[in-house]
Specification:
This protein is of the alpha/beta class and 498 residues long. The chain folds into three domains: 243 residues, Rossmann fold; 165 residues, Glucose-6-phosphate isomerase like protein, domain 1 (Rossmann fold), CATH 3.40.50.10490; 33 residues, no CATH class. The protein is 47% helix and 11% strand. It is built from 19 helices and eleven strands. A six-stranded mixed beta sheet has the order 1-2-11-10-8-9, with helices on both faces. It has a five-stranded parallel beta sheet with strand order 4-3-5-6-7, with helices on both faces. Strand 3, helix 7 and strand 4 form a beta-alpha-beta unit. The longest helix is centred in the N-terminal third of the chain and has 26 residues. The chain starts with 7 loop residues before the first helix and ends with a helix. The mean pLDDT is 97. The structure holds 6-O-phosphono-beta-D-fructofuranose. The site of 6-O-phosphono-beta-D-fructofuranose has 14 residues, from loops. Its EC number is 5.3.1.9. Pfam families: PGI. Catalyzes the reversible isomerization of glucose-6-phosphate to fructose-6-phosphate.
Length: 498
């Protein structure tokens, strides 16, 4: 492995005969020294398969790649998305993290949109509406869905429902049991050109009957107007916010309705706190840097093909879905920024689910499968419910799994042998609050960006998703029998479907 990651191969080679339990036995202080905290967020990397010398090599990589400078450039609104000539100023949506003019302008626009959003929420609160239907997909859905699910409290003023899939069953199910007269809907689409959202938005518009309770969030005011939603019920989006980084903008309108505007702002404060930490903490004390270096170590030095994310908190059950877009749409690239071919493996497959459920589904493969799957375990210290024994059991399971995966257990019977040596990181929140969740999500955002810097790729475009959309559009007439497909296999399949 050459280039920016030079030196890591040699470290991996040196450590190849030293499994995790030996690394930990040789250096018990790593349990303390490979851990760091920022506010309510604690991270422990002691069960990763590196030692102090390998970490030195990783931090050398971070220095050489100028991760600190890269963070500054992101926050200052540099063109970090050169294929589309755009900045990625999601940090400006949540705080004053830069003095750069472009970032300050973005911040002013964000505050203006927040004030308008608050006004719309107050109007809705004063009326009869009880339910909100949010229509969007990808970045216009996954973030709001995650945060609303994680943080909505019993007895909330509005119940928020989501429709994303173009499958009409999604709309049918979401609208079943709702009263159109007491429902408002938000059509969220950065481009307002997304097939799924326009079709589902059309279903909801017709279902509402009266479109005075129809709202939009988009960069494209003209398309919104053509759809029939007036400017006073349209909140803005901007090119300087990527879809998968947009929950902090008016795309978070459903979040603010689900959890209240004040708590939405606390979510933003938490994310802004992580922005400041990622930008200002020295590399060795920097959670985002540790997380990104660990990801690169597991991918490029240990050659892990997949990465699991395992929240041990029912409220975070949608985090893996959210992170799949954030991480894989950002880092699923094979071209360098300059247009060459990346000489290294980039993103592994991210997947996961909430513990303890997943212990009874795919954990068998984590413990005894032939592949090593690095995992991020995420726990929450405070229960927020009265079932103390359940919470103790949850935390015991969380600790047990990280320990069992690392240490394994020998046996004469190969079927009952646990190889161990399976790396994991533990992320622990003091409590699940808007602030801590904002910090956690922003940590992943910045880790993703820093990984892209280490790999020399663009984390902010997503041309890979376009081809399938184009082919789908070209095949639509064929489904009505109005045209024929060129591809012989598709032709045969169409014959089956018609
Ligand atoms: O907000 P829009 O423009 O409807 O796009 C939705 C999603 O579609 C994508 O462009 C591709 O799936 C995502 O990046 C984006 O979050």
């Amino acid at each position: 492995m050459g280039g920016q990651l030079e030196g890591l191969d040699a470290q991996a080679q040196r450590l190849s005969g030293t499994p995790l339990p030996a690394l930990i036995a040789d250096d018990p202080a790593r349990a303390r020294d490979f851990a760091l905290r920022s506010g309510p967020l604690y991270a422990n990397f002691a069960r990763q398969r590196y030692d102090r010398a390998a970490l030195d090599a990783l931090f050398d990589v971070a220095e050489r790649a100028d991760l600190a400078g890269a963070m500054r450039r992101l926050l200052d609104g540099a063109i970090v998305n050169p294929t589309e000539g755009r900045a990625a100023l999601h940090s400006a949506l949540r705080g004053d993290t830069s003095e750069a003019t472009v970032a300050r302008d973005a911040r002013a626009q964000a505050l203006d949109a927040q004030a308008r959003m608050r006004g719309l929420i107050e109007t809705l609160e004063a009326g009869d509406v009880t339910d909100i239907v949010s229509v969007g997909i990808g970045g216009s859905d996954l973030g709001p869905r995650l945060v609303a699910d994680a943080l909505a409290l019993p007895g909330a003023r509005f119940k928020v429902h989501f429709i994303s899939n173009v499958d009409g069953n999604a709309a049918r199910r979401a609208l079943a049991g709702l009263d159109p007269k007491r429902t408002a809907a938000i059509v969220i689409s950065k481009t307002f050109g997304t097939q799924e959202t326009l079709l589902n938005g059309g279903i909801v518009r017709d279902w509402l009957g009266d479109d005075s309770r129809l709202y939009a969030v988009s960069t494209n005011a003209q398309r919104v107007a053509d759809f029939g939603i007036p400017p006073e019920r349209t909140l803005p989006m901007w090119d300087w916010v990527g879809g998968r980084y947009s929950l902090w903008s008016a795309v978070g309108f459903p979040i603010a309705l689900a959890i209240g505007m004040d708590r939405f702002l606390q979510l933003l404060d938490g994310a802004s706190r992580m922005d400041a930490h990622a930008a200002e903490a020295p590399l060795r004390d920097n959670l985002a840097v540790w997380h990104a270096l660990t990801a690169v170590w597991n991918r490029n030095a240990l050659h892990a093909a997949t990465q699991a994310v395992l929240p041990y908190d029912e409220r975070l059950r949608l985090l893996p879905n959210y992170l799949q877009q954030l991480v894989m749409e950002s880092l699923g690239k094979s071209a360098t920024l300059a247009g060459g071919k990346v000489g290294l493996d980039t993103v592994p497959v991210w997947w996961g689910g909430a513990g303890t459920d997943t212990q009874h589904s795919f954990f068998q493969a984590l413990h005894q499968g032939t592949q090593t799957v690095p995992a991020d375990f995420i726990g929450v210290r405070q229960a927020d419910h009265a079932h103390e024994r359940n919470h103790a059991a949850l935390l015991a399971n969380l600790l047990a799994q990280t320990e069992a995966l690392a240490n394994g257990q020998d046996s004469d019977d190969p079927h009952r042998r646990y190889p161990g040596n399976r790396p994991s990181t533990l992320l622990l929140l003091d409590a699940l609050t808007p602030e801590s969740l904002g910090m956690l999500i922003a940590l992943y955002e910045h880790s993703v960006y820093l990984q892209s810097v280490l790999w020399g790729i663009n984390a902010f475009d997503q041309f890979g998703v376009e081809l399938g959309k184009q082919v789908a559009n070209s095949l639509l007439p064929a489904l009505y029998g109005e045209s024929e497909a060129d591809d012989p296999v598709t032709r045969a399949l169409l014959a089956e479907l018609r």
